[in-house]
Amino acid sequence: MKILIKNGRVIDPFQNIDSKREVLIDRNKIKGLYPKGKGPKAEKIIDASNCIVIPGLVDIHTHLREPGFEYKETIKSGSLAAVRGGFTTVCCMPNTNPVNDSIAVTEFILEKASKEGACKVYPIGAITIAQKSEQLTELEALIQAGCIAFSDDGKPVTNSLMMRRALEYSKIFNVPIISHCEDLKLSEGGAMNEGFVSTIVGLRGIPKAAEETMVARDMALCELTGGRLHIAHVSTEGSVKLIRDAKSRGINVTAETCPHYFSLTDESLISYDTNLKVNPPIRTPQDVEAIKQGLKDGTIDVIATDHAPHHIDDKDKEFDAAAFGISGLETAFALSMHLVDQEILDLKQLVKLMSLNPSQIMGISKGTLSPKANVDITIINPKKVYKVDSLKFLSKGKNTPFNRWALKGTVEKTISMGKVYEWT
Ligand SMILES: [Zn+2]
């Protein structure tokens, strides 16, 4: 069936388009973009008045929890949360049970996703067996099975030689190595950012150096090997500076941050809301400012969600004992829209950070409305304000510190895997 999307402002950074266009789609392919009023006849019209029409968002840092933690999330519920949040592609982290360090687990995820997934799911394989930093996985076999990147996310690769080898292979196979930067000795027992506020509230802190020392190590290893390094969830000013410096020296590094690292400061922890407990932790106002500047000047390439859904029992505990993580897929875009309101980014830059750049880093043909591209389209009203209601999340994880926040930017429709989801 031919569908024409009319009256919308089409933003496609890949084609350098930001203007009123009509988008014709037919049987899961984009057939063409036409000037306003010039689109051909179609069986169905979608009216995108007051909305932006953008390539479906791509999240390169999602925890889908299946296999092993289906009580927290499943591939089905997580991918539905994704499309609700405007994402049509997610890359899922391997810290499941069992860990995705084998062809069998990769194939399980892909098969489940093809049967039950509401969006495209790409598995990320583990760098080391069982994420133990002792033995590399069979990277080549995992790539052949469908993994598009490697990470031990949730844990750092503590063995520097192992990281060196992984980066050497990343060059041969041209896939990114995604590093969760954390010195486990420095962060041990910590529950929030170490600083003035942690002293006031009496919680054990995680110093910024726990992240920055490993960012520095990985930069050195990236320079040594010429491999492809991607730094996950950047949270500190020092990390931004290290990445900016490495890029200026031509080192092949990319980086991401997440909405909570530029939307919140550690002062919010005074509430002891365990939904604010994330790893790395929420930092100081100075770090938030540096993250915003990093996004603005291109030091940070991607806004990812680090969607980490948890069962309520994992969060309904004393702060020290509660699990780390935020259920992020359904609030990521609107939280990031705030950067546009603050004139830190324009809309085209934002779409680039959440769709085109993540696609290019992962080497997947997403993030554009170019003719013949698959139909991954998100239609968003960037001016409409709504109130976050976590009970309405399609994710099983209701753990968000943004509940009841008024946010601007509603996902009106998502077209994913040949299906049109109408949310309003
Ligand atoms: Zn991580």
Description:
- Helices cover 31% and strands 24% of the residues.
- It is α/β, with parallel strands linked by helices.
- The strands form 3 sheets. Strands 1, 2, 3, 4, 5, 16, 17 and 18 form an 8-stranded mixed beta sheet that branches.
- Helix 4 (160-173) crosses helix 7, helix 7 (209-225) packs parallel to helix 8 and helix 8 (237-248) packs parallel to helix 10.
- It starts with a strand and ends with a strand.
- The mean pLDDT is 97.
- The structure holds zinc ion.
- Zinc ion binds next to loops.
First-last Cα distance: 22 Å
- Count the helices. How many? 13
The proportion of residues forming helix, as a percent range, comes to 25-40%
**How much of the sequence is in beta strands?**
15-25%
Class per helix and strand makeup: alpha/beta
| List of distinct ligands in this structure | zinc ion
